């Protein structure tokens, strides 16, 4: 990879998110696993990514597909063993691909030994003090301690047999830790060291803005009732008063983690998943003594409009500049509707997705890709009998399963080479994905896969050399034009063709530069 030896490799890295259950199945059980990843790494090397981010593969009952961790220091047998992890890590490094693993510090699984001990211990015990157990309200404590709602629907509190309640901002099988208890921080520092010692290059910090809650656990002042939509349980959070999110104490944790990362050779890093409401609060996570990166979700939330894209670019770049950090860009992940579908779906949605991806890849900083977007995959309507997302199961509204359908690799019929043999994967793949397999697209120069390969290659040659200075040349509802050094990126979000600026066309997301739903790079 171009920047494997760059001491600050993550600054301009293209990071490919692997949702482990759905990437590649090595043993034919219908679930992706470590062996599957190892076998498919050449696809990622050919694509040209600098790093992979692996979603949780730790021992877990899988109620939230691994974001409910029962043992932070082991691999779930469904996904392999620690040896399989080491093999995958070594193979990735041999190909020049860095490896970022997910760390889930806001909550554990209810099957974690600490939570099991807490359930057995009495109210007020040291075991309960690692989580947020409280007495209820009402005459007999029959009402939850406060009015907080879980992100996945329903109250954020569950009652245990002795009458106390415990807090879970997500599923009831995901009890929140009490980060005001130093034992919790100590445990996670050991977890970081365990994986750093094994050689990982970084961490993606799950719910990084959630660890601390206002100490009183007071009621939330409700100003707007969030509605569940297929978009994302995470994106719906619109409350102005948020005593459970983004508390200032969290930043001390990241200052300590910064020192741990710095104490290892090789420029280790961490990226925060922090759904903060403004670019200013986002930037607080990437001050020089805190985390290296944080996801810039405003880019993902922007609608298909030149003006919105320009606004996010300007806002992001100005706020990261204040703290001297580099920006990140992301359009899809395992929690949101795939961007081809968000932008309208069908051929138009895919064309727009390619164009937005080109805008993202032209910008300075790091870009995060989600598995399958390089194939132009769209959100799948998963039949209700297959739903597994805990938010869908709680609310009865379709959730995030549709962006998690296993990757089609080859062949004419499901499982499309996802695993050996004809065993079907954990979520059904649409039959029309025969045209979207890696095998089919690799052979077609006009495919989305071929486009992504070219885009990453041209980015390395042209965009990375163009410096970090971005100027918005024009933006109205329809057309966005910005320059980065001598590179010009032109995106037509409108419905009529326009003339692109003069210059050598380096890459076009469609057939004709300047056509509607098309991006062009020029020099
Ligand atoms: C992850 C989700 C997960 C939630 C709870 C999120 O930020 O990305 O997939 O359900 O955290 O861990």
Radius of gyration: 23 Å
Number of helices: 13
Shape descriptor: globular
Strand residue percentage: 5-15%
Biggest pleated-sheet summary: 8 strands, parallel
Poorly predicted ranges (pLDDT <50, ≥5 residues)? 1-5, 228-238
Class from helix and strand fractions: alpha/beta
The CA-CA distance between the termini, in Å, is: 24 Å
Could you tell me the mean pLDDT?
95
Neighbour order of strands in the largest sheet: 11-10-9-5-2-1-13-12
* Fraction of helical residues: 25-40%
Bound molecules: beta-D-glucopyranose
Task: Reconstruct the topology from this structure.
Elements: E1 14-18, H1 34-47, E2 51-54, E3 58-59, E4 71-75, H2 82-94, E5 98-103, H3 113-120, E6 133-134, E7 157-159, E8 165-167, H4 182-198, E9 202-205, H5 250-262, E10 269-272, H6 279-283, E11 293-294, H7 297-301, H8 306-323, E12 328-330, H9 339-342, H10 346-362, E13 366-370, H11 390-395, H12 438-442, H13 448-463, E14 470-475, E15 479-484, E16 487-492, E17 505-508, E18 518-522
Parallel strand pairs: 1-2, 1-13, 2-5, 5-9, 9-10, 10-11, 12-13
Antiparallel strand pairs: 3-4, 6-8, 7-8, 14-15, 15-16, 16-18, 17-18
The chain binds beta-D-glucopyranose (BGC).
Residues 64, 67, 104, 170, 206-207, 234, 273, 334-335 line the site of beta-D-glucopyranose (BGC).
């Amino acid at each position: 990879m171009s920047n494997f030896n760059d001491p600050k490799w993550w600054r301009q890295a293209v990071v490919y998110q692997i949702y482990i259950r759905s990437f590649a199945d090595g043993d034919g059980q219908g679930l992706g696993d470590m062996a599957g990843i190892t076998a498919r790494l050449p696809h990622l090397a050919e694509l040209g990514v600098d790093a992979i981010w692996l979603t949780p593969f730790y021992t877990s009952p899988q109620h939230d597909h691994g974001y409910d961790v029962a043992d932070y220091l082991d691999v779930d047998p469904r996904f392999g063993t620690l040896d399989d992890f080491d093999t995958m890590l070594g193979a990735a490094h041999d190909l020049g691909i860095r490896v970022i693993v997910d760390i889930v510090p806001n909550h554990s699984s209810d099957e974690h030994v600490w939570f099991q001990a807490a359930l057995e211990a009495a109210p007020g015990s040291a075991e309960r003090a690692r989580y947020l157990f409280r007495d209820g309200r009402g005459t007999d404590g029959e009402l939850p301690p406060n009015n907080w709602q879980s992100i996945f629907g329903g109250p954020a509190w569950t009652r245990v047999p002795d009458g106390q309640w415990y807090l879970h901002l997500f599923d009831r099988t995901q009890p929140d830790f009490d980060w005001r208890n130093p034992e919790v921080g100590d445990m996670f520092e050991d977890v970081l060291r365990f994986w750093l010692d094994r050689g990982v290059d970084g961490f993606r910090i799950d719910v990084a803005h959630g660890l601390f809650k206002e100490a009183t656990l007071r009621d939330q002042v409700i100003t707007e009732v969030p509605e569940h939509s297929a978009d994302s349980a995470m994106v719906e959070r619109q409350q102005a008063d948020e005593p459970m999110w983004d508390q200032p104490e969290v930043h001390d944790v990241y200052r300590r983690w910064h020192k741990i990362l710095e104490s290892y050779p090789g420029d280790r890093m961490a990226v925060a998943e922090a759904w903060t409401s403004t670019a200013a609060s986002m930037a607080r996570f990437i001050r020089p003594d805190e985390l290296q990166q944080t996801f810039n979700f405003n880019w993902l939330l922007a609608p298909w409009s030149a003006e919105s894209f320009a606004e996010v670019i300007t806002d992001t770049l100005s706020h990261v500049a204040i703290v001297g950090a580099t920006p990140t860009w992301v359009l899809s992940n395992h929690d949101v509707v795939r961007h081809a579908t968000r932008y309208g779906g069908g051929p138009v949605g895919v064309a727009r997705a390619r164009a937005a991806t080109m805008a993202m890849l032209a910008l300075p900083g790091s870009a995060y890709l989600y598995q399958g977007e390089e194939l132009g995959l769209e959100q799948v309507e998963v039949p209700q009998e297959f739903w597994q997302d805990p938010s869908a199961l709680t609310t009865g509204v379709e959730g995030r399963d549709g962006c998690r359908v296993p990757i089609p690799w080859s062949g004419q019929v499901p499982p499309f080479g996802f695993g050996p043999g004809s065993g079907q994967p954990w979520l059904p793949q649409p039959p029309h994905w025969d045209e979207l397999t890696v095998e089919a697209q690799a052979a077609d120069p006009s495919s989305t896969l071929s486009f992504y390969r070219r885009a990453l290659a041209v980015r390395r040659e042209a965009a990375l050399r163009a410096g970090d200075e971005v100027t918005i040349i024009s933006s109205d509802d329809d057309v966005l034009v910005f320059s980065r050094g001598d590179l010009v990126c032109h995106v037509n979000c409108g419905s009529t063709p326009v003339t692109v600026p003069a210059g050598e066309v380096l890459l076009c997301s469609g057939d004709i530069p300047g056509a509607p739903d098309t991006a062009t790079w020029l020099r």
